[in-house]
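Field guide to reading this record: the first block holds the primary sequence, the second block holds the structure written as discrete tokens, and the final block holds curator observations. Each block starts with its own label. This record concerns Receptor-like serine/threonine-protein kinase, catalogued under organism Glycine max.

BLOCK 1 — SEQUENCE
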Amino acid sequence: MIMDITSLILALFIVYCFCQCLSSANNTITSGQYITDPHTLISPNSVFKLGFFSPQNSSNRYLGIWYLSDSNVIWVANRNQPLKTSSSGTVQISEDGNLVVLDSNKRVVWSSNVTHNIATNSTAKLLETGNLVLIDDATGESMWESFRHPCHALVPKMKLSITQKTYEKVRITSWRSPSDPSLGYYSATLERPNIPEVFYWINETQPYYRTGPWNGQIFIGSPQMSRGYLYGWNMMNDEDDGTVYLSYNLPSQSYFAVMTLNPQGHPTIEWWRDRKLVWREVLQGNSCDRYGHCGAFGSCNWQSSPICNCLSGYKPKYVEEWNRKNWTSGCVRSEPLQCGEQTNGSEVSKDGFLRLENMKVSDFVQRLDCLEDECRAQCLENCSCVAYAYDNGIGCMVWSGDLIDIQKFSSGGIDLYIRVPPSESELEKHSDKRRHKIILIPVGITIGMVALAGCVCLSRKWTAKSIGKINSQRQGMNEDQKQVKLNDHLPFFSFEELVNATNNFHSANELGKGGFGSVYKGQLKDGHEIAVKRLSKTSGQGLEECMNEVLVISRLQHRNLVRLLGCCIEQEENMLVYEYMPNKSLDVILFDPAKKQDLDWPKRFNIIEGISRGLLYLHRDSRIKIIHRDLKVSNILLDGELNPKISDFGMAKIFGGNDMQANTRRVVGTFGYMPPEYAFQGLVSEKLDVFGFGVLLLEIISGRKISSCFDHDQSLSLLGFAWKLWNEKDIQSLIDPEISNPNNVNDIVRCIHIGLLCSQELAKERPLMATVVSMLNSEIVDLPPPLNPAFIKRQIVSCADSSQQNHITQSINNVTVTGIQGR
Ligand SMILES: *[C@@H]1O[C@H](CO)[C@@H](O)[C@H](O)[C@H]1NC(C)=O
Ligand SMILES: *[C@@H]1O[C@H](CO)[C@@H](O)[C@H](O)[C@H]1NC(C)=O
Ligand SMILES: *[C@@H]1O[C@H](CO)[C@@H](O)[C@H](O)[C@H]1NC(C)=O
Ligand SMILES: *[C@@H]1O[C@H](CO)[C@@H](O)[C@H](O)[C@H]1NC(C)=O
Ligand SMILES: *[C@@H]1O[C@H](CO)[C@@H](O)[C@H](O)[C@H]1NC(C)=O
Ligand SMILES: *[C@@H]1O[C@H](CO)[C@@H](O)[C@H](O)[C@H]1NC(C)=O
Ligand SMILES: *[C@@H]1O[C@H](CO)[C@@H](O)[C@H](O)[C@H]1NC(C)=O
Ligand SMILES: *[C@@H]1O[C@H](CO)[C@@H](O)[C@H](O)[C@H]1NC(C)=O
Ligand SMILES: *[C@@H]1O[C@H](CO)[C@@H](O)[C@H](O)[C@H]1NC(C)=O
Ligand SMILES: *[C@@H]1O[C@H](CO)[C@@H](O)[C@H](O)[C@H]1NC(C)=O
Ligand SMILES: CC(=O)N[C@H]1CO[C@H](CO)[C@@H](O)[C@@H]1O
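BLOCK 2 — STRUCTURE
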């Protein structure tokens, strides 16, 4: 018996060992071994798999490597030789030591195709990076790597490269379609090895986009690819054979990122954190981004109309064609340059240069080895030099021949100096005027979709949906909607930068605390004051909130919305960086008996009006409607002039096209500011914000918190109290004594009337924000009588006049209400 147990344990132990050996060896194939569909190799960190997959809507089988699931394929072996039937493919090491894919008839459909230095025995290994390497058993050297033969995707540590002498390049090529991985029409390579930049090609021959030269930190022709996009990009130079490599690294192990070229030729970036997709971005250029859109010596400005203009000193080559907006022939010099002319002894003025700001510089740059001051002189001296520019990271750049693919940005880019004859260069002295003129060119009919389709996503499902929507919305943007243009790419701040700026999140810098973390004041190295919202690590909603906020607010620009400057996602930290508001939030002043005197009636009215305009801006756009969902006094920030700015878009919800109302299961918001249809049924519409605005308005006028107690039995809410006074024709007593005087009492009462209309119980009775703004402006004179407001009775049991915050979680009909009580 004892014997039996021992042998059983022994047997188990052996089996266990055997399994261990097997599983640890499961990322390799050695000579004589093979894997068949549907078996896979798994990388040691178990995030990458090598195996057979079928793309969406296709029954073909391909050998590929994917991250987490085969919807994230990063590499395909037999992309042009699909296996037609399922479960027939085999991967093995062939007799000549190559890694091969065989079909069911044992025919080779794909091979790693190493022909020289081939070993008889070799091993294929799937590494932690997702790289599949073929190793010579005898020498241990790698003979072939999938990272050197990319498909459509660039992943960390994979390299784009170009060799100076041979012009040998590593190319990534898009799939033909989402269901066909075969070689597509679009590709990307590293070009111009002297000052490398990335080119995107149609059919490998026709460039359609270039990033502009790399200056050691960024590609200077891609302002939208600012720090966020370039996070971790790296250019390396192998001095021996003059090969330049571009690759990127991740901030930490918990991240993964893939850049793919989609079948339409748009680069797409996906970011994962802790194996969850957190960010997806499809970069789509405007027509100015198209290589050489304005022809030779033409300059493209997306914000001017027409978008193409000849550089100063040049005129359209064919005027008629140019006027028909056919820019292909470009421009020619209109006045000859002085350069090369014989001087007749007498003094002649020399050519000069005209400075153009924020430019994407021309293609075909040459580098001169000289300092900034000499750069201009060197160019002036050589008659074939038509322009120069200087960048600290690159040095002196000069151009001869045609200037092509020049673009003017609204920000970013560098100064470009173009050579002009003496008569023109006179103008240089007045170039300030000229520059203003350039800026004042009327804004074109469409701003439309700008260079960047920044999109932040929380889950794949959500991603696909919202990207689809936002993209389709962009195509048809018109003049009215130009305010809703995207910001240039939102920058990332490094953790260290924010630590420095906030004095290591010193408590003296803390501006406030919310349910999702704390807000700190900070100062950047350049002196800019910022507010940093550091989402607490414990709050599970941190990242989601953060991404939502980035998604919503980075698209918005309005004087009554707080501006987001950037974010930081690093070292388990999620932080958002805003412009700093010197007067903090409205509640700090409004509910402080000493400070509230600063808020006289005109100031309060200005605040009310500002909030209404900010909300109207959020609601007005018929295609992307944004519902804030968490309006409250502490979310209204005040600038130095006490102008209000709506902040905290963590809970905001975006609506597309026709859905004016939606149901949400997760009801988030703040008690007292939530209308009944939302609190109880989860119904979200713009009337939700109208209700919140009504409550805010009454708080601002009464100087009392929604959570205060208003009568002796403490049963009435602020709304109930106002309603009672309204019916008793005693509404004046609601007015904060600080602002009440006989001259303005009528205006104030009118405002209260509007507040009551906004907070009516029935959503359909509440006015739209557009109407509210008209009412406040007195464009609408006669106000309808209000019906009863919601929540006449107090919802919160204790009278909270303390400045503490209470987190409230309640379940109402399966809906969880999480909120933070107003301060
Ligand atoms: C390892 O591979 C073998 C076949 O080669 C397979 O039977 C086994 O399930 C794999 N083990 C793991 C842990 O995937
Ligand atoms: C292997 O190389 C040969 C010759 O260099 C080429 O004709 C063939 O297409 C290559 N096969 C694959 C699968 O790359
Ligand atoms: C290759 O591997 C086989 C079996 O593993 C072995 O018998 C043979 O000797 C090896 N050949 C060389 C050249 O190492
Ligand atoms: C797959 O087919 C379905 C139905 O025809 C279609 O809606 C979907 O867009 C297709 N997906 C791809 C990637 O082609
Ligand atoms: C690329 O070339 C193919 C074949 O010559 C052609 O059918 C296709 O339209 C071209 N693609 C583009 C985007 O021009
Ligand atoms: C634009 O002009 C070029 C050269 O004159 C011509 O080849 C091309 O067809 C024209 N394009 C259009 C759209 O008219
Ligand atoms: C220079 O002098 C020559 C003859 O002496 C004359 O033909 C030419 O026009 C002059 N050029 C200028 C720029 O004055
Ligand atoms: C002038 O510039 C051209 C083109 O950059 C160059 O080939 C030539 O050598 C230069 N000439 C002198 C004298 O520097
Ligand atoms: C932070 O401050 C330290 C010391 O002042 C400095 O060395 C470092 O470069 C700063 N880092 C950033 C990102 O500003
Ligand atoms: C609550 O949820 C359960 C299960 O999801 C469902 O059966 C029930 O009808 C729901 N109750 C209400 C009041 O919606
Ligand atoms: C009421 C209040 O705090 N007002 C301040 C707003 O900010 C300006 C500029 O920082 C100050 O001068 C005001 O005192």
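BLOCK 3 — OBSERVATIONS
Residues 185, 202-203 surround 2-acetamido-2-deoxy-beta-D-glucopyranose (ligand 5) (CB under 6 Å).
The chain has a mean pLDDT of 78.
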